[in-house]
Structures are given as structure tokens and as C-alpha cells.
Design goal:
This protein is mainly α. Helix content is 67%, strand content 0%. It is elongated.
Length: 108
Amino acid sequence: MVNCMRYLNMNDFLEIDRTTMYEYELRMKAFRLRYLDREAAMHKQAWVSRQVGATKKNGKPFYRTFKQFFDYEKAERNMLNMGDRPKLLNDRIMQAVRRQKGGNNGEL
């Protein structure tokens, strides 16, 4: 019962009482996956923050404008056309890794 209130935002005792074990396990699994998604987002944010400060060999910033770093309109178009997969940020991270590794024609 405490887990329902703590993790699943279920505060109605009657609703908690009517919840089947299958439904409870399914909701807890969804909660754990949401938690993992938030944790992954925090790690990606830390990585992106590091990349924002990246410089070229001559010491100049790699991104001169915010739009070079994040093109909102392009991201919106991609997001609306790709369905459920949050691929855009992963692609940007992979591009940054390729740039950082240099050479190898951008291959990892």
C-alpha cells in the first residue's frame, strides 16, 4: 500500500484496494522505466553541457550560435515525424562523439 502511495501517486484507499497484483506490477514496472528515463536524461544533459563548452583546436568555440547547437525547428520536425523513439538527442550525442574522436572520417 505504501508503494502505491509513494511511487504510483495513488492516494485513494479504495483504488489501491481494487488494484490487482498484475496491475500493481505493471504500474511499478512503468514507474521504474520512467525513473530510468529521467536518470538517462540527466546523464545526457551532463554530456551535452560538456559539449557546449567544446572548442576547436584554435581555441574558438565549436558552436558560435545557439541555433548551431540546437535547431528547435529541425528538432520539432524530426520529433513529429519519428513516432515514439527519442532518437534526436542520441544522434546529436553520437555526432559529438564522432567530432571529438576526430579522424576516421567521423566513424567510431
